């Protein structure tokens, strides 16, 4: 049995996030950072992350405000934000003792979430 080595959750600073997606993160009462984005159709996504707990949560609401997805995962190791000519994206890398993976969240022009977590 392999011991799970502690891995730090590397996150960009608030200014880097703002430069990439045009939004400043807020904080909640527990200290987690929160970003809220909305696409052209009126759907919204609330993305929160906690560096100390190495966790992320995604809540996706449709244009009527009905929750379509509530996703929580621990063992995050790296958070990054990218911006292209027509798309803005959030990427989160994960590593557990047995699995590694990446979640990609497209925030513009339309919301989408793609997740892969595979055995090593």
Could you explain the architecture of this structure?
The protein is globular. It is built from one helix and nine strands; from the N terminus they run αβββββββββ. The strands form two sheets. The chain has a five-stranded antiparallel sheet with strand order 1-2-3-4-5, with no helix packed on it. A four-stranded antiparallel sheet has the order 6-7-8-9. It has one domain. Strand 3 and strand 4 form a beta hairpin. It has one helix at 14-21; strands spanning 26-27, 33-38, 44-50, 55-61, 67-74, 76-83, 88-95, 99-108, 112-119. The mean pLDDT is 93. The protein is mostly beta strands and 120 residues long.
Helix content range: under 10%
Shape: globular
- How many E-type strands? 9
- Into how many domains do the coordinates divide? 1
Number of helical segments with 4 or more residues:
1
C-alpha Rg, in Å? 15 Å
Present the secondary structure layout.
Layout lengths: L13 H8 L4 E2 L5 E6 L5 E7 L4 E7 L5 E8 L1 E8 L4 E8 L3 E10 L3 E8 L1
Antiparallel strand pairs: 1-2, 2-3, 3-4, 4-5, 6-7, 7-8, 8-9
In short:
The protein has 1 helix and 9 strands. It is mostly beta strands.
Defining key terms:
120 residues, mainly beta, five-stranded antiparallel beta sheet, four-stranded antiparallel beta sheet, 1 helix, 7% helix
